[in-house]
Amino acid sequence: MSRTERLLELINLVKAQTGRFTVQEMAERFGISRRTMLRDLQALSAMGVPLAASPGPGGGYSLAYPHRPISLSLFADEALGLILSYEAVLQDAPSPFRQASVSAITKLRCALSPEVVRDLDRLRERVAVVGVERTYEAPLLQELLQAAIDRRHLRVKYDSRQRASERLIFPYGLVAALGFWYCACYDYRRNAHSWLRADRVTSLKQAPNVGPRTPMTLTQWLHQSPDLDTKKLRLRATITALGMKALDWSAFHQGLTRVSDGSGVIDMWMPASSVDFYARQFLQIRCKCRNPVATGIGASVDSYG
To answer: Each residue of 160-189: pLDDT tens digit?
Structure first.
């Protein structure tokens, strides 16, 4: 049982208690140490669960307001939708919202009536969120998000698959995809909007003396038109269904369209300086497929500027 699951189960047990309970009793119930249970109870208190501690013999923990009126009115399926949304975000480890999401789920369950919680648990036994499991560290994820909120330029060291480099970027936000977190940004090194894997950003610092860029929400960034202040090449390509399975879609997010039969079509403008980057993407597709010819890649390039 994960700590998140344990905290959710613990809040159910705490709400069901009619009197005091001890740390040792709960620790034995979950098969963990007394110290771990004490940390879990402190975490519940920090999340807003009204626990009261009574020291000395016969003491323990209890709900400070066991008969507090319920202020949240949700049906079980509505509550489940919220919880699954949080869990979907938590799939992309390490999420910058992990602690807040656990807190929100705990508060949500605490505010629901016992009848709705029982219905919720029955639904929860039949629904699961399964994603691409990743194990990695992205220690600068929160800093990238804050820079996007504050609209600050950053100088970062980025360790790509080819080589490490220093880049000046303007972050617009974070995107979760395929089990990874990406920083959506304007990359001055490539002179184009780009995706950077957040776990490959090894260091960052503010770049205060750079002129501001046009404000843009992340939704606008995902649908933005290509910049016209630099030489552009128009890339057109068709890829079979087999090739689509090996494609790193994030590199072609602006112009990739999936066809109903599983194949794909790419039609997009790219900076002339990025020809090598996109050529490598196609070469990787051919290398990943056992039958390179079956990828069926056909491409053409036009230019302007």
So the answer is: 877 899 999 999 999 887 678 889 999 998
Sequence-ordered list of residues with C-beta below 8 angstroms from that of 299, at least 6 positions apart, any chain: 235, 236, 237, 238, 266, 282
Is 171 within 8 Å of 185 (Cβ atoms)?
yes
Alpha-helical segments (H) within 31-153: 34-46, 76-90, 98-111, 114-124, 141-150
**Structure-block tokens of residue 215:** 């404000």
Query: Which element (helix H / strand E) includes 172?
Result: strand 164-177
CATH of domain 141-222: 2.30.30
Phi and psi, residue 4, nearest 5°? -60, -50
- Domain range list for the chain: 3-63, 76-124, 141-222, 232-304
Please identify which residue in the block is written with the tokens 């669960």.
49
Question: Model-level pTM greater than 0.90?
Answer: no
